[in-house]
Amino acid sequence: MRTQVVLIWVVSLLAHAAPDLLLPENLKTMGCAAPDTKLMFVRSSQPGNVFYPGDSVDLTLKVTRGKEPLKSITLGIIEVAARQNRYLKGWSVMSEPVAIENLGPRGKLDVPVTVEDREGATAEVAAKALPVPARYGTYAVTIAPNGKNPQFLCTLLRAMKPKEGFDVDAPVFGEGQFLTHDSQKPEHVRARALTLGRLGIKGVRIELGWAESKPGTYDWHRFDPLMNGLAEAKIKALVTMGGHPYWTYPLGQPTPACIPEKPDHSCAPRHYEAFGRWIHAFCDRYWRRGDGALWAIEHWNEPWEGISISGWESDSNHYRALMKQIADNARRVSRRIKTAAACSIMNTEDKFLVGENRDELAKLVDIFTDHYVPPRTSYGPMVAKFWGKESTDTETWIAASEVLLPQIVTQFLACGQDRMTPWHPAMTYFKVPGSPMEFQMPNPVALASNVFNVMMTGRKFERMLFHTHLPWAFQFGTGRDATVVLFGKLYAPHGGDPKDVLWWQLQAHEGGTITIDNSDGRLEFYDIAGNRDFEGQKQVTLPMDYLSRYIRSPRGGIRLIEQRLAQARLDGVRPVEILLRDFTAPVDAPNASLSATVHNLLNRQVAGTLKLSPPAGMTLKANALPIELKAGESIDIFVPIAQAKPSPTNTYLFSCEFASDAGKATWSENLNVAVARRGTKKVDGNLEDWKDDTGVLADAKLQKVDPTQQAWMPFLQAKDAQPDGAFAEVKLAWDDAFLYVAARVLDQSDYPGHQRLETWDEDQYFRSAKDDEICERLRPYRKFVLANMRDKKVEEKMKADPEWPAYQKLLESDPELKHAVTSNAASVYFQAKDRNPRATFADAYYVYKKVPWGEQPWAGDNLQLGFDFLPDYHYNMKLDTDKVPWGFHAMPDTDYEFSAYQCTDGKSELWRILAPGMPRGHYYPRQPRAKFDQGPVKGGQHVVRREGKVTTYELAIPWSEFVVRPSGRSAKPKAGETFGFTFRVNNNGKPDILYGADKSATKSNGLSLHPYWESKPSCGIRWALRD
Does 554 fall in a domain? Predict the structure, then answer.
């Protein structure tokens, strides 16, 4: 949500800033001056300046005579690209401006000009058959009056010709703002629809609303040109149906919600059937027995709980009731019309896959949609496949460059998305002075979209060819028709943390090459622009970078491609990843050993030596081990400890170096003893009986001590050494009845406490008749409430009024009165009463008036715990490890999840967040609850105590919580067995404290702890129960 708010602000600035391609640095690269209206592009012979091979490039220009006579113009053609993934200073759409590369001049044309011989005279000039190469690419055209002082004129594409007809499975989906962002003129809408069609875009997401100005009168004048233009271009539309007409609102205007900028724009429940009739009329008009543009209807853009960006501020019951109207009425027109919801898998689960009626609720939705859910948090496609649904990304505007487009789309499709919307229109097209439309000139991202769609339409993602080693090769299509997208390195979409990517130790390594045998010429290589490359070369050597290559083999098919890549030579690449494991027994225990995993990242055998450097005070029985690994092989090593003295800090710094014929790999990490000892604890908040137990210390990600030092200290010493820090010490213990947890947290910010969720008043967040009473208390000051305080003169007049001080004193005396004014509730109420004396907030009972996020179990100050007791367990998902390696995207690695916090009544609460068989909800008010769901831990013991800046947690979780439903089988490990454990200390004042952020055994994973839209370290650290 916050990303979206920022994005709208950024996009709004684009109208006042030069497009990326026309920034001074990029103009310098192209060797031309900025464009102006004196030498102006008017139109070309193809929509969107998209030319296929064989198309004549004809331009119409408008020229203006300056001080000197104008006899001719010289049009220069330059090929430009953005393949180095470089960026300029500043800010554009979701990234810094993209740096353009000049690939060289490609031709020129001298055109005679006939213009009246006076300054300021104008004339249209036809430039026929520009000598643009047939080679696919992005070309900039410059214009030089009388052959001097060239300036930018336009860009155009030599693009691949897409297949004809409708095909909604083309992977790159378009954004509807491209069609109507700045102009509703039918001719402009049609031209831009045809532009998308020529690019090979076969589907778009467009946001529309309920257009019924008065009951029974539908307004089609805006929609007809749009839907007709799309149909002509053979583009299908996923229509996101949003805002409702004013006459349907309970108060006759948008209903005030949590903040004044975001009122609710949905109808009152008494108008549900009218909404259904509108849906039926819309579908009937634009479905046209499948020959129209309509493909699917999505219910609202980003309908988050609490505050959303597009006017949805209501509860999930209201959402489902309207969704049923969409499903019922769209299907009355045709069962082939798809229904879609709800802009993130987390939101879709919260609205349809919670409670006891999940099977029925799931029937309302055909397509699960996602926004900004990158691989590290992506699990929606697995859920969709379980329920027999499609999964589609309908907004992740991050493909800002030619390099990023195939990287991002490929990774999202590999996560299981059926299609993806990777760009805002401003990332693909831009305007020049005098342009009648916002999006007129194409850039390299537009070309990359064309190439990807032409290459992949009709070829579904099948699998990654290699699940245990490099290279990164993604198969689309099958047999001799298959196409492989090859990357040297994976980009971390919408992130930047190296751990966002599989085998993340590779991210620290730059350089390297891959050499592929093509001595028989049976492999066809295509560059990022779609051109054949390396023809006639016996060997093809490519850098291991982010740039994509497309590989086909019509004569050998996918088997030959896979064989050649498996045998390709990788040089200059990190050969292995080294994963050190924490100790699951005391370091001085008999048979204690260091354990690690060494994984060969290469596609060939590697032999070398692993050197181990233990910390001072510890010796190993072997400091060097010979290692021999087959391609992609992982081996676990165990090196006995010869002698060790336990560290009072429970921190042991190890350094490793693997040296081989394929190169070196190093790694250093602080290891801990991760042991839960048997012993019964008295849960009273006094941790004296824990003094002999070993704990782990984690500090806030943004406040780590020097990683080369990491001089961890016992908690009390660390607290004194870093009084302004934020860190936590956590210990585990167990007996036959309980799993015990103790934690001490240094937290600089105080917290008033959490509402007790067991007795939570869920209605407190919504409008009701009580809001009428609050507003009526303000009636004596009605003139102040209704005054337009943005008008300086009005503001001065109101503040000079003798009653103003009393009004202000009243507001300050009662937060509810103040919120009624600041949220505009009182103003809307008085206006509604003037129109209709029966108006009441009781009719808006479904609208949020304050956000619910502060009371979720992980909100505020709390200790959040996750346990992995059940290897390979997953709930209501269809895993895709036959297609991609485990960990390529978010995977379920936590079976049980809890949180503990202090409540406003001074006592604590221990809350179950997740257990096997439970819905993965985020516990919003009025959300349907299942019979077995989130709730207080029955029989649990818990104390949360704060003294100064230190918060102490002491918990006893009964083993009866750790069962597998419905069988009732216990998941409790036996003494000596290991289990995964993770924790997060959430802080209302930030920063949060994440366990495992600096461990080699973890990677970014959204499913490790709630909320699932946030990435955390995976539950990859193993602990052991010990007697």
Answer: yes
